[in-house]
Structures are given as structure tokens and as C-alpha cells.
Automatic annotation (TrEMBL):
One of its GO terms (cellular component) is cytoplasm. Residues 5-352 form the FAD dependent oxidoreductase domain. This is FAD-binding oxidoreductase. Coiled coil: none annotated. It comes from the Bacteria.
Length: 388
């Protein structure tokens, strides 16, 4: 029977980055069990936004660290990082948002992020392809950007294999049994033993894996929709800056020679299926279409190249989980930001495993037990996922 120091359930962005950081810090016997293939699930179906303009201290810091880690890994491997820096504008649609955004600018600057508030006249000068008369202003960070999910999944998979991590694909975890020291993990590829087990199973597995040990992990899946336009309108420059309309839950970024548009329906409910491929909601797409066409007039009437759905994990407050609810059993979840925060979440979970603490992040924003308490903090800059 194979035995490991750490066995990680889930071979997506969170699980692989956790394995990478553990290996970098000297952990020798690491296994990753993935029921499909590395990066197959939510990871490679995402839009790849990497934003440091979070709505809480934890969100800001995780975005900052992840941006740096993506770039560093590309340099370490000697191949493209998959990250493109274009800058990001987050638009405010109401007086409440404007007031909140001013407070968040101060928070981000305290965390070392170059972030500023801009009024519509300056926004019109900088980004003329957006109709800024629809908004009260926006925050802006120049070194935000995006990654191509397939490239970063390739990179982190290559990195963990290079580091000697044992990656078991098509390996579904069926049961976890506590032992006097460690755990016995039954899978479709055999039975393993491990001193420590990590639940990094994402939107389609985190709750189920926790339940194997009687631990409630409030991670659910919600549908997110993405379309791409194969050609970039002449009004939009190459590598144009990204734009996020928070109140409407849509954003755009460059994509190859065209434009990517992502959107979440505020009325979306948790999806209980085990599927990553979900039906595209064309009715909602058509309902939202007048909004984004009014915001970016040059996109009106553009043909669509691709349309797909992603199954995104979320927590009730949109913040992550980095915790050890049972001795030797760890939970890491992204709160809807697996691509945005994955590298940093893996780094901080490795810190918890090896140092028995998590530094630089507020405890009340990452521990699992917070969900049984009155809600105090939430990530205010997030797509409109369900609240439970």
C-alpha cells in the first residue's frame, strides 16, 4: 500500500499549487488524486481574470500574490507564464458603490496595490470605447491582467511532476478512514495511506469529501457563462484594458484576436449536479445583451466565436477557506476565485500544513468556523453568486 506525507484530493488549480508549494518547501512524499485529469474541471473552463482589486484584505492580498506567482512560475520553467498585463477598470453604478469603492482604494493602497479612483471625464479620455456616462466612475489598477487557463494548467502540472509529486489521474476518492496516525484513502486506483489529507476538490467535490469525515464544507457550484467574439472591433485597441460592471455581473477582456465577455446571472441558483458542462442560458444572454451593448457600443452586432459555461465554486461570503477542521485534514476553497487566487491559496495552505499557522491574512476571513457565526466580512467585489 502506497504511503504519503500529504495526499491532496483534487487536481485543479488549488490542489496543484498546494502540491507545488509543499514540494518547494521540502515535503517529499506528495500525492494528488484527480478523478478526471489535471486542470480538467473548473480550472480550464474559467475566464482567467487575475484581479488585485478585491473587496477585502484577504481578497486583495491573494490577488497580489497570485499575480506574482504566475509570473514567477513561468520564469522558473523557462516558458510562457500565460499572464497578460492589461489593467482593469471596475465601474461603479450607484452612489453606494462609489462610496464603497473609495474606501476600497485606501485598503488596496495600504496592501501595496497601485489603485486609484477615476471620474467619468478622465475615464472617457483613457478608455473611449466605453460609454462612461452610464457610470459614476471606476477604480483602476494598471498591472491587473488575465491568464489563459490552459497555459497555466499546463505550467503547474509540469511543475508538480518536475518536483516529484505523484499525480494520479482518473482516480476518484471513494472513502476516507481516520487511523491512529493519519488516514486511509480508498480510491478507484487503489488504497493509499497519508499522514495528512487536503480537501481541494472544488465546486464538484469539496462538500462531498468533507462529508466523508463528518465535516460540513459550505462550497457549492454556480453556473457562469462566457462568450468570445473572434474579431476585435476597430474602436478597441490591441490588449485593451479589462472592464468589470460589478452591479450587472459582466466583464470583458482581450482574447486572442478578439474579445471575451463573461457574465453571471444574479438569479442563478446553486447547481446540484456533478457536471461541469451545463446548458448555456441564451435567454439570460439576450436579456443582458442590451446592457453590455450600451456600455461597449462597438460590440453590438458582433458575431460570436465560442460560448460555454463554467461551474464555479463559491462560499456564502465569496471568501476562501484555509483551515484544518480536524487534525491532519485540511480544507482549501477559493470562494469563486480559483484561477484568481489559486497560486496564493496553495502557498498559504502549505504554510498552514508546515508551520501550523497562516500569516498576513485575517483569521475571520479564512477559517471554516466563521460560517456558523454572524457574518462580518464578505468580498464586496465578486460576481453575483447565490448567497447560500
Amino acid at each position: 500500500m502506497a504511503s504519503f506525507d500529504v495526499l491532496i484530493v483534487g487536481g485543479g488549480n488549488l490542489g496543484l499549487w498546494t502540491a507545488y508549494h509543499l514540494a518547494k518547501r521540502g515535503t517529499r512524499r506528495i500525492a494528488v488524486c484527480e478523478r478526471y485529469w489535471a486542470g480538467f474541471g473548473a480550472t480550464t473552463r474559467s475566464a482567467g481574470i487575475v484581479r488585485q482589486q478585491g473587496g477585502s484584505e484577504t481578497a486583495v492580498k491573494l490577488g497580489k500574490w497570485s499575480r506574482e506567482l504566475y509570473r514567477q512560475l513561468g520564469q522558473e520553467l523557462g516558458i510562457g507564464s500565460g499572464f497578460t498585463e492589461v489593467g482593469y477598470y471596475v465601474a461603479a453604478s450607484s452612489e453606494e458603490e462609489r462610496a464603497a469603492f473609495h474606501d476600497l482604494v485606501e485598503l488596496r493602497q495600504r496592501c501595496g496595490i497601485a489603485n486609484e479612483w477615476l471620474d467619468p471625464p478622465e475615464l472617457k479620455r483613457r478608455v473611449p470605447f466605453v460609454d462612461w456616462d452610464r457610470f459614476l466612475g471606476a477604480t483602476y489598477t494598471p498591472d491587473d491582467g488575465f491568464v489563459y487557463p490552459a497555459i497555466v494548467a499546463r505550467n503547474i502540472t509540469h511543475a508538480v511532476l518536475k518536483a516529484g509529486v505523484s499525480l494520479f489521474e482518473e482516480c476518484e476518492v471513494q472513502a476516507i478512514e481516520p487511523l491512529s496516525s493519519g488516514y486511509r484513502v480508498q480510491t478507484t486506483r487503489g488504497t493509499f495511506e497519508a499522514e495528512r489529507v487536503v480537501d481541494a476538490a472544488g465546486p464538484r467535490g469539496a462538500r462531498r469529501i468533507g462529508a466523508m469525515l463528518g465535516i460540513e464544507v459550505p462550497v457549492s457550484a454556480a453556473r457562469h457563462q462566457i462568450v468570445t467574439f473572434p474579431e476585435r472591433p476597430a474602436a478597441m485597441p490591441a490588449n485593451f484594458p479589462m472592464v468589470f460592471v460589478l452591479s450587472q455581473g459582466y466583464y470583458l477582456r482581450p482574447d486572442e484576436q478578439g474579445v471575451l465577455l463573461g457574465m453571471s446571472n444574479p438569479e442563478e441558483q446553486a447547481d446540484p449536479t456533478e457536471r461541469f458542462l451545463l446548458e448555456f442560458d441564451w435567454a439570460y444572454f439576450e436579456r443582458l445583451k442590451p446592457e453590455w451593448e450600451a456600455t461597449i457600443p462597438s460590440l453590438a452586432g458582433q458575431p460570436i466565436g465560442r460560448a460555454w459555461t463554467g461551474s464555479i465554486d463559491y462560499t456564502p461570503d465569496h471568501l476562501p477557506i484555509i483551515d484544518e477542521p480536524r487534525f491532519g485534514f485540511y480544507v482549501v476553497a477559493a470562494g469563486g476565485h480559483g484561477m484568481m487566487w489559486g497560486p496564493a491559496l496553495g502557498m498559504k495552505l502549505a504554510e498552514l500544513i508546515l508551520d501550523e499557522r497562516v500569516t498576513e491574512l485575517p483569521d475571520e476571513e479564512i477559517r471554516l468556523s466563521r460560517f456558523s457565526e454572524p457574518r462580518r466580512v464578505r468580498d464586496a467585489i465578486a460576481l453575483p453568486f447565490p448567497t447560500r
